């Protein structure tokens, strides 16, 4: 399978560790909860058993989703990442011309995007506008709220 989802090393490692935890500790805990719930008797009217089986289903869904994502993902090698133009993995300091403010974003894939951590997707309106451009260039991002003019101040790893 082709690896098509670039992830920062930290995000890749965090999700790989989470998957391992769910496959081991998570499954053991759910299995024990099911076993304990069975001891309460009649399964047709056993709320503990139903809750444990629902937890097992949610756990297996999360394991499947993480496995699928990680099977398609690869960690970005920062040593190979340039700073001449914006690419996935770069940190980009920009100047918002309308609001007269500077902000730094990291360009990441859509699965890693997190606005609270200033991580924006390469396919978001802002990410798309920045991709491939160089420091000193001014770009226009076409957002649902209108066009935003941004100047790229710095690109780093």
Blueprint of the fold:
Blueprint: E1 5-7, H1 9-38, H2 47-72, E2 73-75, E3 91-96, E4 101-108, E5 119-121, H3 125-130, E6 138-143, E7 146-156
Parallel strand pairs: 1-2, 4-5
Antiparallel strand pairs: 3-4, 3-7, 6-7
Helix pairs in contact: 1-2
Keywords:
elongated; 2 domains; Chitinase A, domain 3; alpha/beta; two-stranded parallel sheet; 7 strands; Helix Hairpins; 157 residues; single chain
Question: What does this protein structure show overall?
Answer:
By secondary structure, the protein is an alpha/beta fold. The protein has two domains: 5-75, Orthogonal Bundle (Helix Hairpins); 78-156, Transcription elongation factor, GreA/GreB, C-terminal domain (Chitinase A, domain 3), CATH 3.10.50.30. It has helices at 9-38, 47-72, 125-130; strands spanning 5-7, 73-75, 91-96, 101-108, 119-121, 138-143, 146-156. Helix 1 (9-38) packs antiparallel against helix 2 (47-72).
What is the CATH architecture annotation of the largest domain? Answer: Roll
Q: SSE string, helix = H, strand = E?
A: EHHEEEEHEE
Gyration radius, rounded: 22 Å
Low-pLDDT windows of residues: none
The number of domains is: 2
Side-by-side strand order of the widest sheet: 5-4-3-7-6
Taking the sheet with the most strands, its summary is: 5 strands, mixed
- In total, the number of strands is 7
Strand coverage percent: 25-35%
**Helix percentage:** 25-40%
CATH third-tier fold name of the largest domain: Chitinase A, domain 3
Distance between the termini: 28 Å
Instruction: Please tell me the overall pLDDT.
Output: 95
